[in-house]
């Protein structure tokens, strides 16, 4: 039985990936690069953009071929498509900046097994038309990049006293070395998760209070 496609594109098609369904802060996907390469803003930005490129290109191609890919081999096909764009990204980064390539290390190749990309292919790209897939993939990719930048900016600022290599604090600042080490990634990620969960709970409570107030006003009336 063919899957019924919803071709309507709304603001949520793009914005869900940035906030409501953020891959890192809400869905907790792609934790390996999130913790490993966010010790600086430049590394975080490069990994975020590389992942966004792979997600956008692979999802678009899968959407175009969704009626031609046999369901029995769909996962294997998705992985081959994703790996192709990861290879392209790997060579481009290596050609542009060998220093950045060495800083990101094996995590560029590990984009192939990023659950966010494979999950988007299985849950979204194979069920929606090209334009809607592009919009959604772009939102998810930017949401992932946003999350990496949130961690990278805090870790570089506190760990080195700089942002993008530019000193922010004076010479008297004592860097928190732990922030650029692996434990710092867990500390900063946990703090951001607490903040996002607090904002989520606050929104739910505000909506609940608004509904109760409306119901009480209606009862009095």
What is the number of helical segments per DSSP (H or I, 4+ residues)? 8
What's the number of extended β-strand segments? Answer: 2
Flag low-confidence runs: none
User: Could you describe the largest sheet, including whether it forms a barrel?
Assistant: 2 strands, antiparallel
Roughly how many Å is the radius of gyration? 20 Å
Percent range for β-strand residues: under 5%
Main structural class: mainly alpha
What's the overall geometry?
A: flat
Distance between the termini: 51 Å
- Give the fraction of residues assigned to helices: 55-70%
Number of domains: 1
Mean pLDDT: 88
Q: Describe the strand arrangement of the main beta sheet, using strand numbers.
A: 1-2
Q: Helix-strand pattern, N to C?
A: HHHHHHHEEH
Question: Short description, anyone?
Answer:
The protein is mostly helical and 221 residues long.
Q: Helix and strand layout, with pairings?
A:
Blueprint: H1 11-15, H2 31-36, H3 41-64, H4 74-96, H5 98-104, H6 115-123, H7 130-160, E1 162-163, E2 166-167, H8 182-220
Antiparallel strand pairs: 1-2
Helix pairs in contact: 3-4, 3-6, 3-7, 4-5, 4-6, 7-8
Provide key terms for this protein.
two-stranded antiparallel sheet, mainly alpha, 8 helices, 221 residues
What features would you describe in this structure?
With 221 residues, this protein is mainly alpha-helical. The protein is 65% helix and 2% strand. It has eight helices and two strands. It has helices at residues 11-15, 31-36, 41-64, 74-96, 98-104, 115-123, 130-160, 182-220, and strands spanning 162-163, 166-167. Strands 1-2 form a two-stranded antiparallel ribbon. Helix 3 runs parallel beside helix 6 (115-123) and helix 4 crosses helix 5. It is flat. It starts with 10 loop residues before the first helix and ends with a helix.
């Amino acid at each position: 039985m063919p899957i019924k496609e919803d071709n309507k594109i709304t603001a949520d098609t793009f914005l869900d990936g940035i906030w409501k369904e953020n891959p890192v802060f809400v869905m907790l996907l792609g934790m390996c690069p999130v913790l490993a390469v966010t010790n600086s803003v430049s590394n975080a930005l490069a990994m975020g953009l590389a992942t966004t490129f792979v997600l956008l290109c692979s999802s678009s191609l899968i959407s175009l071929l969704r009626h031609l890919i046999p369901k029995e081999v769909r996962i294997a096909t998705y992985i081959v498509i994703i790996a192709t764009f990861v290879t392209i990204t790997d060579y481009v980064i290596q050609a542009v900046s060998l220093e950045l390539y060495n800083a990101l290390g094996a995590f560029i190749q590990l984009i192939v097994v990023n659950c966010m990309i494979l999950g988007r292919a299985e849950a979204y790209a194979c069920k929606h038309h090209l334009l809607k897939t592009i919009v959604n993939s772009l939102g998810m990719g930017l949401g992932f990049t946003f999350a990496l930048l949130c961690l990278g900016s805090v870790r570089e600022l506190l760990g080195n006293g700089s942002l993008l290599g530019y000193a922010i604090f004076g010479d008297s600042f004592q860097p928190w070395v732990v922030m650029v080490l692996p434990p710092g990634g867990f500390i900063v990620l946990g703090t951001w998760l607490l903040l996002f969960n607090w904002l989520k709970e606050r929104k739910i409570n505000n909506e609940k209070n608004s509904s109760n107030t409306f119901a009480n006003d209606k009862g009095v009336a």
